[in-house]
Amino acid sequence: MRAIVRHIGVSKLCCPVCSAIINLLGARYGAVQTLGSHTTISACLLPPWLPEEFVDIIINRFEVELKEILLTLSSVTRKCSPLTASLESSALSNDEEVTPQRFQRW
Fold first, then answer.
1. For residue 44, which of 7, 61, 63, 100 sits 20 to 30 Å off, Cα-Cα?
2. Angle at which helices 52-79 and 16-29 pack, to 10 degrees?
3. Three-state SS string across 46-84, please?
4. How many other C-beta atoms are found inside a 10 Å radius of the C-beta of residue 21?
């Protein structure tokens, strides 16, 4: 017997969260295919009718992705040279007292 595959026709790629929901629902209730998903994760709300076990799966999945992204950004940030050169200018390094007259409003 041949499996029934349902197609959802959309004009654009799904967001990663919608794609994950469709895959979870498809695994439980029957295969569903879309064109795929893009990689940009935007703020969104999960459907209120989504079973709580699916909500937990989706949240856990994207928590893991977010953690990986933050760890990557953190390691890249550590490798960048600090902006110390601009802070070491003679204007900031001399010991003269700063008075309000030195600052003017633009």
1. 7
2. 140
3. CCCCCCHHHHHHHHHHHHHHHHHHHHHHHHHHHHCCCCH
4. 19
| Ranges of each domain in the chain | 6-77
**50 vs 29, which has greater pLDDT?**
50
Cα–Cα nearest to 35, from 10, 18, 17, 16: 10
Choose among 12, 16, 14, 13: nearest CA to 65.
Answer: 16
The SS3 of residue 20 is helix
Contact 41, 16 (CB under 8 A): yes
Residue 100 has pLDDT above 90, yes or no: no
